[in-house]
Amino acid sequence: MKNYTCSPLCLFVSIVLSLVACSCKQKQPYPIFEEVTNPWVDDYTHLSSMEHYKEWGTYNVHDPAIKKFGDYYYLYSTDAIFAENREEAKAKNVPLRYIQVRKSLDLVNWEFVGWAFPEIPEEAVEWVRSRNEGRGATNIWAPYVMKQGDVYRLYFSVSAFGKKTSWIGLAESDSPEGPWVQKGAVVKSSNDTPMNAIDPSVIEDVDNGKLWMHYGSYFGGLYCVELDPATGLTKEKGDLGHLIARRANYRKDNLEAPEIIYNPERKEYYLFVSYDPLMTTYNVRVGRSDKPEGPFRDFFGKNLSDTTNNFPVIVAPYKFANHPGWAGTGHCGVLARDDGRYFMVHQGRLSPGNHLMVLHVRELFFTPDGWPVASPQRFAGEERYQVGKELIPGKWELIRIAESVHERRLEAGQVLWGEGSLNEAEWNRSFMVELLEDGTAGDDGFWHFDEAKQSLTLSIGDETMEDVIVFTGHDWENQVQTVLLSGLDRNGRSLWGKRVE
Predict the structure, then answer these.
(1) Which helix (H) or strand (E) holds 153?
(2) Total domain count, the chain
(3) Sheet of strand 255-263, all strands in order from the earlier edge strand to the far edge
């Protein structure tokens, strides 16, 4: 048998030819407008009765909190249920009111695990009802989950609607699915305190390991208090913390649902908050700080603890063509993945009734200026493709995402009964713009795409928006794959868009 060997020159030529062959492989082209069926339907009235609870994978989701533990993403949420029937639930052994738990391998297909607790802690019930004429404390709100060492910690709220008689508790487990052991009250509020003890979110200081809990609502604003890492309770007993965010007319202008994350690339902490009534014009805004305890500043450099409204607005009620629209798009949880991608989860209420609550998962991106922007479309598990310039020309459906200025009659920052549908002035509606191959846009605008940065400069009317992020994704309204965009205008309002045919 002959022994064939390769000389150094032969080996060099072989390597070069191999590299050339690899570099010449054409990446699979993006299948734009390829039909893709939505993972689920948005109207789940056919699954609303109590015996269907195991099919509520993305349904009846309100105030979601999300974390990844092991292979699974876990979602915990307020036990708010469309067409809830407690007598029927009791007859069928469905334990309502005690924090819904879900898990998923892909952020798209969710398994309904069940409820976290078998009952509301008696300490919480006693605190709330003894200060509210025997009423309130009928379910558990706004959970937050984290892992500290080998222990899973679940924070949660018990309250009376429209009152400051509230209680944030802590439970621990050695599994994200429980069983949970109650550890007692973290903070408590009443008519004698300036704040309302609901909606917890916890962050660790990456520099010193300190833990900080953000919480609060329309009563007095949002607060931040230091926790003891060993116990998960406040470091100083009875400490209620310091003010970090508020609005001028807190009884009318709702502010709640803090969610805080750290971006290691930016070395900044981002505080997401929700404005306005949860059933209608609920919208998400954000501030940032170099410290987890604040102060947090907005798009214009204003302190969130001042009484001015803050920006940017990154998610708000919207309506693309071929869909009745989404209201109540607030109270978000944010997931920072190990691969550097960020995702937001929040409720969306299906219009026009706004009572069906569906889980929305959106990818988040950060602009060069360091502000998060959300995808205009829900995440459907699609692959990400590099966008070429040839995919930009065409007809685009755009939405300017802004806050509502319509005046409503409110109580405790929430819509009164009978005002649950959106007024025409409250919708962020879409409009069409055609981007031509010659770089013009619409009647008198222009566009320029930076393929290296995957960003778009877009001029429409009298405004030019730079660093608009372009990416591929799923068009839920038309059930096809397409190209999407998201950015901010000079006033801190979002621009959303998708290419359509």
Answers:
(1) strand 151-159
(2) 1
(3) 255-263, 268-275, 283-289, 313-315
The DSSP secondary-structure symbol of 426 reads G
Pairwise CA distance, residues 153 & 337, whole Å: 19
Query: Is beta strand 394-401 parallel, antiparallel or unpaired with respect to 372-374?
Result: unpaired
Give residue 424's identity as a one-letter amino acid code. Answer: E
| Beta-carbon count within 10 A of 438 CB | 8
Look up residue 464 and give its two tokens: 């030019």
Q: What is the DSSP string of 189-207?
A: E-TTSSS-----EEEE-TT
CA dihedral 70, 111, 365, 216 (to 10 degrees): -90
Q: Are the C-beta atoms of residues 345 and 379 closer than 8 Å to each other?
A: no
In a domain, residue 161? The reply is yes
Q: How far lies 245's CA from each of 140, 296, 486, in Å?
A: 24, 8, 26
173 near 254, Cβ under 8 Å?
no
Phi, psi of 360 (to 5 degrees): -110, 130
How long is the chain?
501
CATH assignment at residue 291: 2.115.10.20
Domain containing 360 equals: 45-388
Query: Domain for residue 217, yes or no?
Result: yes
Within a domain: residue 126?
yes
Q: How far is CA 330 from CA 8, 49, 344, 381, in A?
A: 64, 25, 10, 22
Q: Is residue 144 part of a domain?
A: yes
Say whether pTM exceeds 0.70: yes
Per-residue pLDDT of the chain (501 residues; tens, 9 = 90+): 334 344 443 433 333 333 333 333 335 689 999 999 999 999 999 999 999 999 999 999 999 999 999 999 999 999 999 988 889 988 988 888 899 999 999 999 999 999 999 999 999 999 999 999 999 999 999 999 999 999 999 999 999 988 999 999 999 999 999 999 999 999 999 999 999 999 999 999 999 999 999 999 988 899 999 999 999 999 999 999 999 999 988 767 899 999 999 999 999 999 999 999 999 999 999 999 999 999 999 999 999 999 899 999 999 999 999 999 999 999 999 999 999 999 999 999 999 999 999 999 999 999 999 999 999 999 999 989 999 999 999 999 999 999 988 777 777 777 776 678 898 889 999 999 999 999 999 889 999 999 999 999 999 988 999 999 999 999 999 999 999 999 999 999 999 999 998
* Residue matched to tokens 């993006």: 30
Residue type present at position 400: R
Closest CA relative to residue 81, chosen from 116, 56, 108, 113: 56
